[in-house]
């Protein structure tokens, strides 16, 4: 029995391939691309580390690959600064644990990542959270066990980053506005927001209801 378990684990693990950046990154929600936030164009990634590779088999989540996926995702929703030197907020990530199954038909992977957001101007931590969202790859996703494991791991990374982005857009950052000329110059005008909203609607990326609601909100904004 122990030999059977070992053989099944080896069949799933296969080669220790790193996850693919394009499969781990997220594009964000259409509403996030035009949402108001002090973080817009104002975040840089200070680094992603991993505490330990124990408990990680099969597809390994390399911190470098995860960091690239995080960078692509933040850029997609407009939070990543084009110039880290100008960014006020620094984001760090620590992969604390990766749960991957030794065998199974449907394979579920969960990645625990601690994120910390620092305000460089105030030299203070303003946000800390640990995100752990499971993702399951089912038999019809791939007949090959090692490929299902990779898909499950990439999906867990993708869901992890998506949850972080949701949290960042929900974050209330004090009552003091960020007043500097660099940020003001980056602020998206109402006209630009309306153009982007129309583009999303014309491309079918948002529903008519979302389009009208967002258009109304932009037009009525003070």
Molecular structure report:
It is a single chain. With 222 residues, the chain is of the alpha+beta class. It folds into two domains: 14-180, Lipoprotein like domain (Double Stranded RNA Binding Domain, 2-Layer Sandwich); 188-222, no CATH class. The chain contains seven helices and four strands; from the N terminus they run ααβαβββαααα. It has a four-stranded mixed β-sheet with strand order 1-2-3-4. Helix 3 crosses helix 4 and helix 6 runs antiparallel to helix 7 (208-219). The protein is globular and about 55 Å long. The model is unreliable at 1-16, 54-58 and 175-187 (pLDDT under 50).
Computed over alpha carbons, the radius of gyration is 20 Å
Order of helices and strands: HHEHEEEHHHH
What is the number of beta strands?
A: 4
> Which consecutive residue ranges, at least 5 long each, have pLDDT under 50?
1-16, 54-58, 175-187
Overall number of domains: 2
Cα-to-Cα separation, first versus last residue: 69 Å
* Structural class computed from helices and strand pairing: alpha+beta
Mean pLDDT, all residues: 80
Annotation keywords:
39% helix; disordered N terminus; 222 residues; 21% strand; Double Stranded RNA Binding Domain; alpha+beta
Summarize the structure.
It contains 7 helices and 4 strands; from the N terminus they run ααβαβββαααα.
Q: How are the elements arranged and paired?
A:
Blueprint: H1 2-13, H2 21-24, E1 43-50, H3 63-76, E2 89-99, E3 107-119, E4 124-137, H4 145-170, H5 181-186, H6 190-202, H7 208-219
Parallel strand pairs: 1-2
Antiparallel strand pairs: 2-3, 3-4
